[in-house]
Write a structure and sequence with these properties.
This protein has two domains: 7-58, no CATH class; 61-103. It contains three helices and no strands. 66% of the residues lie in helices and 0% in strands. The protein is mainly α.
Length: 103
């Protein structure tokens, strides 16, 4: 994976940002909007937001911490998959036992 550059959005980004935003309007409740705004409506909203936000600073965990978290998630996902497989096997056994018992 290459380097990631974060930059301030420009008016030229409006259409692409709206494309991304429209997914969340149409498929989630996170935006609290029912309809995708027009480019003009979105642009006005975008300008108002940019004017209010002069700079954002945030801290992210070190790469080492991120790698440890990712490894832990991989382990947990494997354990979940194994548990789901065991549950499916048990469900099948229960069905077989009930079938035999009720015959």
């Amino acid at each position: 994976m290459g380097d990631i550059t974060i930059r301030k959005a420009t008016p030229d980004d409006t259409r692409r940002l709206l494309e991304i935003y429209s997914y969340y309007v149409e498929n989630t409740a996170i935006t609290f909007e029912y309809d995708v705004p027009s480019v003009d409506e979105f642009s006005r909203s975008y300008r108002a937001s940019i004017d209010r936000v002069q700079g954002i600073t945030f801290t992210v965990p070190s790469r080492e911490v991120q790698d440890k978290a990712s490894a832990k998630i991989d382990i947990l996902e494997k354990q979940i998959t194994e548990a789901q497989q065991k549950l499916e096997a048990l469900s099948s056994k229960i069905s077989d036992i009930l079938y035999d018992y009720l015959q």
